[in-house]
Every structure is written in C-alpha cells, then in structure tokens.
Amino acid sequence: MTNNNKFPSLAIVGATGAVGKVCLDILAEKNYPAEKIKLFASERSAGKKISYNENDLIVYEADKNSFKESNVVFISADSEVSLYLAPAAVNSGALVIDDGSAFRMKKNVPLVVPEVNEDDIDFHEGIISIPNCTTTPLVMALDQLRKLSKIRRVHASTYQAVSGSGSLAVAELRDQTENILNNKEISKFVYPHQIAFSLIPQVDDFMEDWYTKEEHKMINETKKILHDYDLSISVTCVRVPVFYCHSEVVSVDFEEDVDVQEVVSLFSESDGIKLIGNGKNENYPTPSMVEGEDDIFIGRIRKDLSNNKGINFWLVSDNLRKGAALNAIQIMESAIKLGKIPNFDS
User: Fold this and answer.
1) Which residues are paired to 153 by β-bridges?
2) What is the pLDDT of residues 216-228, one digit of tens each?
C-alpha cells in the first residue's frame, strides 16, 4: 500500500495546457496519488474534469488564495500569471517550480536541470525556474563535454517544433497542411508566415541587436546553469513544421584537441543522454523517434573540419517532456531528496 505522506501536495497551474497534460501523464506513470494533486487553470477552464489514473480531477480557477494546502506549485502559464501567483504561493509556504521566463535570470532564483546543477536547489528562496526547452538539452550535453576540456565557444542552431508555441500553433500547422493538400487558402494567426511545408527563421520577437528573445534566452540561461559567464555562445533559432520535439545542431570549440571517440564514450555513459548508433553516420535521432521519450538523444558526432579542436553533433529532445514537464518533476524529486521543500518532511 502506498504511503501518501511521502508525496508532497502538488498544485499544477496551467493543467489544461500542453505541458500540464504531459505533467499529468508523467505523474500517472509514477503512480503519484490523485489525492495529492490539485489542478488549476484560467476561469474559462474552471469546472472541467481531467481523467487521471481512473480518477476525475476537477480544474479550479487559480487565484492568490489557491495554494494554502500545497507543498509544491508547478506553474506552466504566461509570465504575467507567474508574476501574479508565484509570490502568493511562496507566502502560503509552498515551493514554486516555474516553467516560464519570468524568474529565470533573477539572481536569487535557481535555474535548474537536475543532471547538471542539482545543488543550486539549495539556495532557492521559494522559487525555482525551469530553463527554456532548447536550453535544457544543450546544457546537458555541454556539461558532459567540459569534462574533456574547457569549452571556448559554442554555436547552436535550433529546429523547433510548433508545440513550443502552444496548442494553437499545433492546430495552425495541422490546418495549413490540410488546406494546402486540398488546394484551399490558408490562414495565419500564430506565426507571421506560413509554417506548413516551410520554416521560419524567427522564434519570439527581435531585439535591438537583431537576435531574437529566444536566442538571448538560450545564451543567458546556458551561462547561468553552467556557472560560466565567460562562455562564448551564439544561437540561431528556427521554427520548423514539426509538431513535437526540438532538434539542434551544436558546434563546440575546446581549448585542447578532443578525440571523437572520447566524446562518444562520454555521451554513452551520461545520465539522461541516449547515444544513437555510436553517434555515427545514418544512425541518428529524429523527432518522430524521440517523441514521448525522457532522455535527450544525440547522433552525428564528428570532428569540425574547420577547427581541429572542435566537434559537431546533432541532438533531439521532446520539448514537452524533458524540455518542461519532466524537468519540473525531477526538480521536485531532487528538492525532496535535498530536504528543500518548505513544510514537508518525507
């Protein structure tokens, strides 16, 4: 019989969204007790019922008084919601794990990927942030690679699925695809250009330096998580007509010469990383292969022909699982282990 006292009382804000749904799927896989979960969303979703392990969980409207009985509050909503609800949840005595960008770069808020910087959980003051869904797989790979030699420079190009923009973007890609195949006119609501049978070299708004906010997120978050603010890193983010899973091409320059076989051996032994076909040739991960998987997948490891101290590789990860929901749950599990959840003793 399960001892429910070992499980923190968990509130999920944004339970009806894509990340919230995946979070519930993962909790169900872990047999997290239904009576320890409370679901919240906006007013329009209040009263809905969500099936969870043969139970119906009711969705409530979230407000500042919603979290008095919660040990952990997972927020997957826009930044305005996080800024409004997170301080109230902390004042109620809960640990907030936030999926948005509102708190990521604040000095007193840990930005955590447990495989990389679990110890940063120790200095939280009530809020822990989850990185951007493209940052997470990148830092997991870089954290392993810096064991071989100091990293001098990183360049990453991303190929990001539309689910990163939410359910409306998934619907837009599906509708545009159907209309094009049926010789009908398409409509655009989420993206500035057609995404079906095309791609868009812009994720989020442009800034004064001509980089996008998404690109700046990856750069700044990577430095913070790795505790390496001198790291030279450049990023180009591209939206592609794929429903789920983000892909990245990563080039890494080291201070010393690094052998490809050392990289292969390192990745093959790393937690949370799955190496496909020893990283060579036609054995490589694709979004259709990785969807629904917890690990990040790596392939096409090779020497950089323009730099004998550089290597290139390809990675793919499920943006809704390890990029968001799974990482949040792993942070909660790490916080339990470290005894860093207020008013909870497992």
Assistant:
1) 232, 253
2) 999 999 999 999 9
- Exposed, middle or buried by CB within 10 Å (0-12, 13-18, 19+), for 237? buried
- pTM attached to this predicted model: 0.94
Distance CA 226, CA 215 (A): 17
Question: 135-161+199-318: which CATH topology?
Answer: Dihydrodipicolinate Reductase; domain 2 (3.30.360)
The pLDDT tens digits of the residues spanning 279-297 come to 777 789 999 999 999 999 9
How far apart, in whole angstroms, are the C-alpha atoms of residue 341 and residue 334? 10
How many other C-beta atoms lie within 10 A of the C-beta of residue 271?
Answer: 9
pLDDT surpasses 50 at 149: yes
| Residues 212, 217, 219: CA angle, nearest 5 degrees | 100
Distance CA(346)–CA(7), nearest Å, equals: 7
Per-domain residue ranges of the chain: 4-131+324-338, 135-161+199-318
Tokens 């009263």 locate to 47
4-131+324-338 CATH: 3.40.50.720
Q: How many CB atoms lie within 10 A of CB 276?
A: 21
Residues 6+ apart with CB under 8 A from 299: 275, 276, 277, 279, 280, 283, 284, 285, 313, 314, 315
Catalytically active residues are 133, 246
Contacts of residue 334, defined as CB under 8 A and 6 or more positions apart, other chains included, come to 112, 114, 118, 121
Q: How far is CA 280 from the centre of its chain?
A: 26
Residue with tokens 């447990």: 114
Mean pLDDT of the chain: 95
Cα diameter, the chain: 61
